């Protein structure tokens, strides 16, 4: 018995900027690049109508000021390199093999059941335990976040969209 997939939401990845350095890098390349390539290979010549790939805003590197999706990616960590590499693979398979794929760059996703190592979770936990909150850097940094419900809506909108490719500076479309 064969199972056929019409839509694929590729959300799997090894997350984390700090842990992507050093000995962990192979785990990042295996899971963030090679797994994406295997998925794209499997989608070739299949009935798949669309792959929605969850990339990361971290591909922009160290942003100063408000985020701007027109900014050219400039990864500054191994994690960021793996996410951008997977995006490029998606573009290559779309161009060379007509694999219908769209990449979305999410800013740090938060919400119910989020990873316990994320700042929101850590801050709330420390407050409830009446412990000091650990803040990296000088405390002046800022981040953009995406609520999980918005990610779900964006994924389904991208799935239903007639567009493929990367939603970026030279390929804008409203989903």
Task: Give a written overview of the molecule.
- The protein has 175 residues and is α/β, with parallel strands linked by helices.
- The protein has a single domain (7-109, 145-166), classed as Rossmann fold (3-Layer(aba) Sandwich), CATH 3.40.50.
- Helices cover 35% and strands 14% of the residues.
- The protein has a four-stranded parallel sheet, with helices on both faces. A two-stranded parallel sheet has the order 4-5.
- Helix 1 (25-43) links the parallel strand 1 (7-10) and strand 2.
- Helix 1 packs parallel to helix 2.
- The longest helix has 20 residues, at 78-97.
- The protein starts with 6 loop residues before the first strand and ends in a 9-residue tail after the last strand.
- The relative contact order is 0.16.
- Residues 7-166 form the NAD-dependent epimerase/dehydratase domain.
- This is NAD dependent epimerase/dehydratase family protein.
- Belongs to the NAD(P)-dependent epimerase/dehydratase family.
- InterPro entries: Epimerase_deHydtase, NAD(P)-bd_dom_sf.
- Pfam families: Epimerase (PF01370).
